[in-house]
Amino acid sequence: MSKAVIRPANEADAPAIARVHFDSWVDTYGSLFPPRVFDEFSLESREKLWRRTAAVARGQPASRIELLVAEDVDTVLGFVSLGPFREGEGGQGDGTMATPAVANDRGELNAIYLAPTCLRRGLGRSLFDAGRGWLREAGFADMRLWVLTGNPAVFFYRSMGGMLVDEKTFELHGITLSEQCYRFDL
Ligand SMILES: CC(C)(COP(=O)(O)OP(=O)(O)OC[C@H]1O[C@@H](n2cnc3c(N)ncnc32)[C@H](O)[C@@H]1OP(=O)(O)O)[C@@H](O)C(=O)NCCC(=O)NCCS
């Protein structure tokens, strides 16, 4: 069981979150994505993204988005990002998924990443549960997420109770990849 503390992220956490995201992304997708993808994925772009996300999450009293970090002795070990389900978009955002009728109360876990040295210690479960709890408190009806087929995280999501509800393919630098959408009760 992990002893990390889970807390809302601030803008000042952006560099540490970006580091975790970058390292985990390379570690996870290095063998799954075509190499050109990594030329376009920079530490700087991740830092900007998470600074902006934290600013929105902290800036509005009833924000519909949240960013949580898992921290152990002042070191960010992982994070989870949450918000409304992006209808018609998977992780790659190609907009091909049919838009369901009841759409606006669905929640999404947009991203969950741990530092590569911290896997399989229960930290993912703690962050996942905190994210699910936040979506429930924020009034969302369920939680959905997209995961690349072939990512071992699929086993994690299944073990967290995820039900496969959608699947689609997308093109990335001339390679066809697929991703799956899992749904969770809150
Ligand atoms: C996915 C991720 C957040 C899971 O966090 P974690 O701390 O490694 O997982 P936990 O230790 O909490 O695992 C909980 C349970 O999930 C299952 N599980 C987790 N990872 C698994 C794997 N690679 N293979 C099989 N089962 C797995 C197990 O049942 C595990 O329980 P156990 O360890 O008692 O057997 C983490 O592995 C990660 O950051 N991966 C890289 C980034 C990534 O792919 N993110 C998701 C993008 S969609």
SSE sequence, one letter per element: EHHHEEEHEHEE
Total count of domains: 1
Q: Which ligands appear in the coordinates? A: coenzyme A
Reading off the top of the CATH hierarchy, the class is best stated as: Alpha Beta
Proportion of residues in helical segments: 25-40%
Beta strand count? 7
What amount of the residues lies in strands? 25-35%
**Parts with pLDDT < 50 across at least 5 consecutive residues:** 91-102
Enumerate the strands of the largest sheet in spatial order, edge to edge or round the barrel.
Answer: 1-2-3-4-5-7-6
Main sheet?
7 strands, mixed
Secondary-structure class: alpha+beta
> For this structure, what is the CATH homologous superfamily?
Gcn5-related N-acetyltransferase (GNAT)
Q: Given the structure, what is the number of helices? A: 5
Average pLDDT for all residues: 90
Strand and helix layout:
Blueprint: E1 5-8, H1 14-29, H2 36-39, H3 43-59, E2 66-72, E3 75-84, E4 106-114, H4 123-137, E5 142-148, H5 153-159, E6 163-172, E7 175-185
Parallel strand pairs: 4-5
Antiparallel strand pairs: 1-2, 2-3, 3-4, 5-7, 6-7
Bound molecules: coenzyme A.
How would you describe what is shown here?
Helices cover 32% and strands 31% of the residues. It is built from 5 helices and 7 strands. Strands 1-2-3-4-5-7-6 form a 7-stranded mixed β-sheet, with helices on both faces. Helix 1 (14-29) crosses helix 3 (43-59). The structure holds coenzyme A. Residues 24, 28, 112-114, 119-125, 147, 151-153, 155-156, 159 line the site of coenzyme A.
Brief overview, please?
This protein has 186 residues and is α+β, with helices and mostly antiparallel strands. It is built from five helices and seven strands. 32% of the residues lie in helices and 31% in strands.
